[in-house]
Amino acid sequence: MKFVFDRVNLKALTKELVALRRDLHRYPESGWTEYRTTVRLLEELETLGVPVRFGEEIHHRVTMYGLPDEKYDRDCYQRVLQECGREDLLSKMKGGFTGCVAEIEGAHPGPVVAFRMDIDCNDVGETQDVGHFPVREGFQSLHPNLMHACGHDGHAAIGIGAIRLLLAYRDQIHGTVRIIFQPAEEGLRGAASITNSGALDGVDWIFGGHIGLKLNELGAVAASSRGFLASTKFDVTFKGRAAHAGASPEMGHNALAAASTAVLNLLAIPRHSGGSSRINIGTLHGGTGRNVIPEEAVMTLETRGLTTEINEYMSAAAERVCKSAAAMYECGYESRFMGAAGCAVCDPELVGRVIRSLKTVEGISRIEEDFDFAGGEDFTTMMSRVQSKGGKATEMVFGCPIKAPHHNGFFDFDEQVIPLAAQAVAKIVLDLCSESDAK
Amino acid sequence: MKFVFDRVNLKALTKELVALRRDLHRYPESGWTEYRTTVRLLEELETLGVPVRFGEEIHHRVTMYGLPDEKYDRDCYQRVLQECGREDLLSKMKGGFTGCVAEIEGAHPGPVVAFRMDIDCNDVGETQDVGHFPVREGFQSLHPNLMHACGHDGHAAIGIGAIRLLLAYRDQIHGTVRIIFQPAEEGLRGAASITNSGALDGVDWIFGGHIGLKLNELGAVAASSRGFLASTKFDVTFKGRAAHAGASPEMGHNALAAASTAVLNLLAIPRHSGGSSRINIGTLHGGTGRNVIPEEAVMTLETRGLTTEINEYMSAAAERVCKSAAAMYECGYESRFMGAAGCAVCDPELVGRVIRSLKTVEGISRIEEDFDFAGGEDFTTMMSRVQSKGGKATEMVFGCPIKAPHHNGFFDFDEQVIPLAAQAVAKIVLDLCSESDAK
Amino acid sequence: MKFVFDRVNLKALTKELVALRRDLHRYPESGWTEYRTTVRLLEELETLGVPVRFGEEIHHRVTMYGLPDEKYDRDCYQRVLQECGREDLLSKMKGGFTGCVAEIEGAHPGPVVAFRMDIDCNDVGETQDVGHFPVREGFQSLHPNLMHACGHDGHAAIGIGAIRLLLAYRDQIHGTVRIIFQPAEEGLRGAASITNSGALDGVDWIFGGHIGLKLNELGAVAASSRGFLASTKFDVTFKGRAAHAGASPEMGHNALAAASTAVLNLLAIPRHSGGSSRINIGTLHGGTGRNVIPEEAVMTLETRGLTTEINEYMSAAAERVCKSAAAMYECGYESRFMGAAGCAVCDPELVGRVIRSLKTVEGISRIEEDFDFAGGEDFTTMMSRVQSKGGKATEMVFGCPIKAPHHNGFFDFDEQVIPLAAQAVAKIVLDLCSESDAK
Amino acid sequence: MKFVFDRVNLKALTKELVALRRDLHRYPESGWTEYRTTVRLLEELETLGVPVRFGEEIHHRVTMYGLPDEKYDRDCYQRVLQECGREDLLSKMKGGFTGCVAEIEGAHPGPVVAFRMDIDCNDVGETQDVGHFPVREGFQSLHPNLMHACGHDGHAAIGIGAIRLLLAYRDQIHGTVRIIFQPAEEGLRGAASITNSGALDGVDWIFGGHIGLKLNELGAVAASSRGFLASTKFDVTFKGRAAHAGASPEMGHNALAAASTAVLNLLAIPRHSGGSSRINIGTLHGGTGRNVIPEEAVMTLETRGLTTEINEYMSAAAERVCKSAAAMYECGYESRFMGAAGCAVCDPELVGRVIRSLKTVEGISRIEEDFDFAGGEDFTTMMSRVQSKGGKATEMVFGCPIKAPHHNGFFDFDEQVIPLAAQAVAKIVLDLCSESDAK
Q1: Which of C85, C133, C198, D404 has the highest Cβ tally under 10 A?
Q2: What's the predicted TM-score (pTM) here?
Q3: What InterPro entries does the annotation carry (chains A, B, C, D) (predicted)?
């Protein structure tokens, strides 16, 4: 017989979670600038009376990869300060120390169970098309070129939803529940900082989850994932020499020509017979004026590979391509590390328990054991850390219909996944913290 | 015997012109946003009591090529409004109607003699190197990524200097002197608008001038130029389709790959046996985020040719390359015309007169007849208009040592060229408006 | 207990098969020109008294993909005619009708069991390095730029070996054994023609096999394979316009520039998230003289994909890239289909029987069930045909150490795999044609 | 009054020269393999009784740039040996020592006057179009991919024509006339070898000439040329590593990808503001088989520049591009010098005399003084040598209508230029060797 969260008004909860998600959707914040998002979560947790840590104490300064430039950070901070006051909270986050870690102490002793939700948005502009659901309902992004196009607004709402469900059953919890609201997942940047801060110390079980992906059916849930692509993120700068394009083109060292050569040859890095590989030059900005030979070009790129070796093959080749392209145009060349994630394998023991729990959740109609994630996810950093200390980890996927691919301006997901996933998360935690296990 | 402007204190004038030039250098303004520059000139002219027209009346709205985007324009306007008040003047210029046309009525009837000075800066960042003269003297650019790196600050000062010299000899002037302070020469944008407004109507003689170029010797002056490169300026936008670079790279239509392909193949357009050709992709901006297949890329480019035919060959090839590159990646493609200039030929009659005048100017040690300009200059648009109405035109070059090529962040010129060129301009005008000619 | 082919002197047989293999290695012949190879096999079969069909009767003229040009074919034919006389046999093959189909009639009625061996070489030059085994033993290729670098010389010898073993046990054979020596496997060209000729009609069981690949251990055998990459082969010709590179470069339409643009952008076709994809531009030949703008460029290319869809995605993208590159340089463009193979799935029923047989073969130490072939193989065409008529098919791999990757000039394999594979093939056939099955 | 060559039947001579030209056109021979052409010229000179030197004695082995490969040379030699016997002559030329130097001793002492005609063909296939004059008249090229597409067949005929005219007036010649039939002008290869052999020693006046170019009017003749482009010819080889394109693409070092990258970036070398520049990749051959990652690619290229400096700028940039492209794909890289020519300036003194002579030639209607050659011509090597010893030199152009650009398969010129140019050459020589000058 399926478990029902009978101590909670699920209908009312759903309404509140959807409202929360839409509010976050309206104010998307890019990695390391989730000031408003974090304030919003802190206020929710405050109301619920859940203790929470945030700011520098949950971060490791040296491994805060891919921080935005200072001016951008300052502008974001100021804007949020004006929007919501709360300098008491914000001042602790200043400089990118966003996200938070909540903790529910169960009524009885037991293991430490953690789950992680990521909260940042994408650097993508949201469509203004009237057929787009957020537009129709009036909650589309208010920030140009920023959008929750990967469902992390939903993740945050699921996290709050699970907390609310768990609080109602605290008397049955044997152990401690730690909930990590992680910043800067996009770009695989935030997990290392949280992990290295010690925020995962003592965790026995940890799981994460993502909505959508290629599991586009409500009620379908994957208990574990494989195919995490190892990934490296880096920025490359070509430094050439400007010259007047009409009067002395031969005096220039064309940084944009170097970068364009790099783009084509990066995309042309041979496929690897050992498994999936990826490369993307996400952005390129070069040149100063129409009639000036471009003296600088900057690109942001990433490589991926099914294994660490394949990813290293890709990033070594990428480095070689960029270096050679720079030399071709007598340009200087700088490469700056911006983030990375490795591969990770889900623990069968935990996966088995998750499957058993999922079978008892109302609304879950299909359980997949081994979803092909086929992408990078910096949760693997957390998984590896917990596993290295003897804990167990898995990454789930909560299926739901989506309207366009992730990271696309038309992305939209079925909000019904929020309450369903919240229940699934809560049920898994309750089962892991049940009396029998605690003994 | 050489002519001496004995009614003017040349030493004092020089000091003031240098101060004016440095002030303009400190506040460089890009094409169509020369609000402060224009205010500064208007105030000078006001003080001198010279009648001046400005704002919409000297522009032709439809041919104001390559206007900046509205937000940028508004921001510039607001900043200048705060800096210098003078809403009385600024409100007339709002929307890019910068520049001005002054007119000195001589004491006697005679021809209309015009000269033109351009006043805009470059989209180039100025070096902070302590060896750079403007840095050492503390007048370097206060605006990031903007710099007077082509000497138009000097041109403006020369214009004011010539006016001051001419005013002292107004009693000897037979005719009218019209001085055009033109905006947006960079990008070959501003001349068409001024010309089409009718501001050149009635002009009998017109000349322009540029400092530096490859004539790097103080005292050397070219009375005429050849080798103007015809030029076309346009912006190209590639519109692709975003997709997650890890999860579904095959779903993307990579606008940046299209643009990079275009860059290389644009530079590879075959040289033309008929004479010089040029192409430059001055800027390229593409992509939204590191892990998103770029959905848009925008480039600003220009072609040049020794003849109109060669320039048309280049721009037709460029169009074909961009179109094909877009098709290769299933991207949409838009091309937007941003400015142009043709070729023009200096009139021997006027050149002869200029040479005769130059020979009488103290400090001019060498006169070139036929300088190879080897670049684009939208003054050719004014030349062609005046010539089509029966007037005569020439473009001069005032030699001086320069520290780095034009449009380079280290550009700097010998300020002694300012008083010298001002005297040359004034002397040419005085000779063209002398009693004997007026008859 | 392991089966021993006690009616045959295995030591002597091994010696003869190795000699045959080395003879074939010395005279490698490219697809559709295996004149000497076929004559050699026909003579062996004649000696053994095995009936054999060859020439036009085993081919389907319309689907003889990727035939060489007529002159090359004629030259090969003439050379072989001079080398070995046998016009009686050769005249039937003239025009590329190479390969042969042998048939052993068992003593008793039963099913038709077929196996296929490919016999063509690669367009690769063999190393002259003294450390290279064929060089040391004096049987390296006598034909420049041709080499058995994929082990098909071994395949042919295995086929003859299996026939000799089977002939010794003909009294125990219930059914018919059909052996297909197929030409032109490289380029995935020959299988279609043989298949469409009807040569597979009536086959109940069919299997093929390849030596080496990534199974580099003698005694390891794979009973079935997956991961066949669907593939399309085509040639692309760019037709431009020649011009004098010094006197009028602008008059040329540079076919080589178009081809080079195509090369880079073909390699840059995005990876597919659905599984492996491949693209290779194997050869490019362009231009006529150093100072002439190249007027023609020809490339041979191939795409591959884990599924037919992925391969079609690749070949459609390739077509688009080439077409756009041609348009970019005002070149004409022609694409010519040269061969293809689809995907295929091995039949579990046959695979199970193969595994049982392999377990009884002396020298086989490890059996893999599901080898990742990760390449194209036109045997899939035969598999699909037999399966479509209700028969069963599988593709095996006979492991052995190799000295360099397949298709490399240093390729060499351990000849001990020949007798071992011959026994494996014979034992599988004997078991499929055993009394119990025939009933 | 115009001079008439009244001692010669011009109509008959024209007929014979045209026949000679058509014979040479039918058997075009590429640089350093002009065996038949040289035999043909030697036979003509033998008949005329003109002493001639040829073979090793007129060459300088070390500077015989860009020799063909030995096999090709041997094949050409053998073919000609079969065609025309004359081993007595051919054996002296074996190994590329083609061309010859004839000498007419005048009746009186005087200066040494030399003129040079080049005799090699282009690596271009001749059209088979029935509208093409050589096809219509049945004298099109019998050698595939070889064609006299630059008029050197005409040059050779003009040389013989001039000799025949001069012989008729030997009694009036004060001095010596040296006629150089130079091989391998295409690729700028042959002049250095002839020059360094000492064949020009003692020359007081030297001139060369070309038919056609952009002077497409019969009767127009240029007495001197400017705008010779300095040029460097070299071959580049990229050495990569082969691998199976399906099984292990990541193992390959793709030489063809490196070469394609080089092609685009070579064409993209910035134009030079100092004057004309050129670059051409005339041929590219890469790869061995469709499914093999290309392990080698070879390109033949050339750079040109209006000045030696510009040419050096181009070739240095080319070297850098190729080297970087090789590094990008982990390929080895070799560059081999194949030929070169510098710039040269015609001597006004000689030009003046040529003009005076031309004015007296019947049929010459227009004389240009300063033709823009806009191309490379290795005659500049001879000019520089003669000038360095105090002699005078010029390069002429004999105008005539052409049907297609030089080096194009449809190239054809008006044969009437042959007798006209022969007379012009003869008249110039006669005037330079006239009694008055000899004193």
Answers
A1: D404
A2: 0.77
A3: Amidohydrolase, Bact_exopeptidase_dim_dom, Peptidase_M20, Peptidase_M20/M20A_hydrolases, Peptidase_M20_dimer
